Amino acid sequence: xxxxxxxxxxxxxxxxxxxxxxxxxxxxxxxxxxxxxxxxxxxxxxxxxxxxxxxxxxxxxxxxxxxxxxxxxxxxxxxxxxxxxxxxxxxxxxxxxxxxxxxxxxxxxxxxxxxxxxxxxxxxxxxxxxxxxxxxxxxxxxxxxxxxxxxxxxxxxxxxxxxxxxxxxxxxxxxxxxxxxxxxxxxxxxxxxxxxxxxxxxxxxxxxxxxxxxxxxxxxxxxxxxxxxxxxxxxxxxxxxxxxxxxxxxxxxxxxxxxxxxxxxxxxxxxxxxxxxxxxxxxxxxxxxxxxxxxxxxxxxxxxxxxxxxxxxxxxxxxxxxxxxxxxxxxxxxxxxxxxxxxxxxxxxxxxxxxxxxxx
Length: 360
Description:
- It is a single chain.
- By secondary structure, the protein is mostly helical.
- The chain has one domain (4-354).
- The chain is built from 14 helices and 6 strands.
- A 4-stranded mixed beta sheet has the order 1-4-5-6, with no helix packed on it. It has a two-stranded parallel ribbon with strand order 2-3.
- Helix 3 crosses helix 4 (94-106).
- The protein is globular and about 65 Å long.
- It starts with 9 loop residues before the first helix and ends in a 6-residue tail after the last strand.
């Protein structure tokens, strides 16, 4: 691990910056619930149009592609709205929030109970440590089916361009399968196909199983709504999901994979933010502000630009923020296995590379 003396815990940054931020940034807000509902409505509208695709002349089917793209962006936005709602205090009716969270969870295919444990508890409290289920694999870990998926599809110097193009659209599904199977089939702290295993309580395990069945029922309901028509399913169900998951994964790939592992949860060392165009940040609920999110997980994302301004002022040398093209180039030019806390290494074990965002 990086020397503990060089690291500062997330709470230290939060405590220092908090007096410089407006109080309303930390108040419950209903805007993400509204955004989630709007984008679910966009998907429903797209599916309704797709029901009639069998009546369209074949030469005009390409006209549905912009609709599929809009639907795909809605999947990405629902992903990020769900993510924020799972971190936030309920700002609307509790029963309505339960419904919205279940509907929101159906697009990233991640049951709310599992999300709370895996993401909120494990990932946020152990970010990029040896115990973080979301980190890169270590070179010493057993080569399992899940590591092979990473080798094939996650951007790296070992991954071919066609595999990365396919991977960015499908790897989230494998990520979900990896974690669901770890919990539902084993639920013990020595599962070898996850980077770092974790377990849940028996009642949480049963709840996760029930939520999986509900999510599958929702997807079957959509397919039934589309009359299981192959064309409608392809253009209005599969394609938007692939586009939406690809949009989300573009951000997720950059969040921590270029950073070193840390023994202390220091977001300025183990996390990366992106510098995206303002209109993309508007569409995607400021998800590019990832260091900021790890300092204040429950904060209204509308206020993350204020946190960035403070980080640039107070920690200009430590704070990691890159443009999307620069971040992607670093991903495809570096390996994805940890040799040690500060070093990445390729699958052959012959080319060690310092973590590009290693703290000075």
